[in-house]
Automatic annotation (TrEMBL):
InterPro entries to which the protein is assigned, alphabetical: Prepilin_peptidase/N-MTase
Organism: Micromonospora cathayae
Keyword set, alphabetical order: Membrane, Transmembrane, Transmembrane helix
Superkingdom of the organism of origin: Bacteria
Transmembrane segments: 73-106, 118-140, 146-170, 182-201, 221-244
Entry protein name: A24 family peptidase
Length: 247
């Protein structure tokens, strides 16, 4: 694998990940409410325009998780994707999805929702962006499989949402459908792993939270982070992880 590709992917995602806390702060609001416009500590209005989405409030209060956490997490995800997929035309889209995933995970942990302001536009542009890649590479079979993966995962998770007491939300189903596009592009084995692995990821987290009494048996725990981590692991599994380990 090219160290240049891995390094560039990691650096690009880390830089983008540094902006996640401010965006997450504005989006981490209860369902149905508009994006936050002022500091919750002192009421200082956030800056208008782009600056308000990329810089914290002028009062200096901490807005969300530290960028010293989100930047390395996004950078690690980007580096792993660069190593697993290599210099392929679709890699930039996977890297953008990794940064988006860090943002969604932070918001989901903060307020137990996956905001439509982020997920729906991503779902809307993904078919067109992947179609451009398919046009360049001739990968229309991959595009069609991505569409089917999106539908399969979306329908499956929607069915789980409708089950009484399932503890899932429609936001999980939408994010699952988005991930299904990308996993389907890679193959059906990635789709299957992307459905199974989130449960494997979530189980030990739940056990730890129960052990330290942070949640109870009836508590609802955000499932979005597990979906996103499971998808990353699925990409690594089918994208050539043994090759990475071999150097």
């Amino acid at each position: 694998m090219s160290a240049v590709v891995v390094g560039a992917a990691a650096l690009g995602c880390a830089v983008a990940g540094a902006f996640v806390p401010t965006v997450a702060y504005r989006l981490a609001v209860p369902y149905g409410e508009p994006a936050r416009r002022e500091c919750t500590e002192c009421g200082t209005p956030l800056a208008p325009g782009l600056r308000g989405w990329t810089a914290g409030p002028d009062c200096g209060h901490r807005t969300s998780v530290s960028r010293w956490l989100t930047a390395p997490v996004a950078g690690l995800a980007g580096g792993l994707l660069g190593a697993a997929l290599g210099p392929v035309a679709v890699l930039p889209l996977f890297l953008a999805l990794a940064v988006l995933g860090v943002l969604l995970a932070v918001v989901d942990v903060a307020c137990h929702r996956l905001p439509d302001q982020v997920v729906l536009p991503a779902l809307a542009v993904t078919p067109a962006l992947l179609a451009v890649v398919a046009l360049v590479t001739g990968g229309w079979d991959d595009w069609l499989r991505g569409l089917l993966g999106c539908l399969a995962v979306g329908v499956l998770l929607t069915g789980l949402v409708l089950l009484p007491g399932a503890g899932f939300g429609f936001g999980d189903a939408k994010v699952g459908a988005l991930l299904g596009w990308y996993l389907g592009w890679l193959g059906w084995d990635a789709v299957v792993l992307g459905v199974v692995l989130p449960w494997v990821v979530n189980a030990p987290v739940l056990l730890v939270l129960l052990a330290v009494r942070r949640v109870g048996w009836r508590s609802k725990v955000p499932f979005g982070p597990a979906l996103l981590v499971g998808a990353l692991l699925a990409v690594l599994a089918v994208g050539g992880w043994p090759t990475i380990a071999a150097g």
